Automatic annotation (TrEMBL):
EC number: 2.7.1.24
Family: Belongs to the CoaE family.
Subcellular location: Cytoplasm
Functional summary from the UniProt entry: Catalyzes the phosphorylation of the 3'-hydroxyl group of dephosphocoenzyme A to form coenzyme A.
Descriptive protein name: Dephospho-CoA kinase
HAMAP family: Dephospho_CoA_kinase
Length: 200
């Protein structure tokens, strides 16, 4: 199987910027959030189980998951998120593992924002890349990008693994506390290392 590199980091740390660069350099990129979105779209493989668990109201007329309904349901019934997760996680895994078999690029990057929060991912990967940056920078970048109030950003960061936890699980660290040119230069170096590992 193709060399498989996990890519993770906190909200606003720079994962998308890094994975876009790696894709540009020739990596095959698979994003777990995109897979989750696809399997809950019209005709998605998760839809039969979602309808069975939450009823017809959870399915929009076009066949996609009704995200607003699920959000409201989760507000009233906190177990909803867990039930949804139990449906989605194995299907996301299955979809990603199938995708890995078809990769012809020299290596594959799996973008898993919650790699350290959700179990079971590490065994699919040969190595883990963590995009790291100080919490203050995460807040500033998300504020600028999403226009969210600081309290909302703090709440997301609180719910995620700490910097220390992520760094402890990293095989490679990309430090994103400089400008974008500095970030991209590190990514180019990382790509060279991965190509070398892949060639062995
Ligand atoms: P999320 O977890 O929210 O999806 P992410 O980890 O994918 O975020 P990005 O979207 O890559 O992070 O970056 C967050 C924001 O910060 C983006 O608007 C991006 O353009 C900007 N950004 C990232 N790195 C830098 C940098 N080094 N200098 C300036 N802006 C940056």
């Amino acid at each position: 199987q193709v060399l498989t590199i996990g890519l993770t980091g906190g909200i606003g740390s720079g994962k998308t910027t890094v994975s876009n660069r790696l894709a540009h350099l020739g990596a095959h990129v698979v994003d777990a959030d995109e897979v989750a979105h696809k399997i809950t779209g019209a005709g998605g493989i998760a839809m039969p189980a979602i309808e069975a668990a939450f009823g017809q109201a959870a399915v929009r007329p076009d066949g996609a998951m009704n995200r607003d309904y699920i959000r409201t349901l989760a507000f009233d019934e906190p177990a909803t998120r867990q039930v949804l997760e139990q449906i989605l996680h194995p299907l996301i895994r299955q979809t990603i593992e199938q995708a890995l078999h078809r990769v012809t690029a020299p290596y594959c990057v799996l973008v898993i924002p919650l790699l350290f929060e959700k179990g079971g991912w590490r065994e699919v990967m040969d190595a883990v890349v963590v995009v790291d940056c100080p919490v203050e920078l995460q807040i500033a970048r998300v504020k600028k990008r999403n226009g969210w109030p600081e309290a909302q950003i703090h709440a997301v960061i609180e719910a995620q693994a700490t910097r220390a936890t992520r760094l402890a699980g990293a095989d490679f660290v990309v430090e994103n506390h400089g400008d974008e040119a500095d970030l991209l230069a590190q990514v180019d170096e990382l790509h060279k290392k991965l190509i070398k590992i892949q060639a062995k």
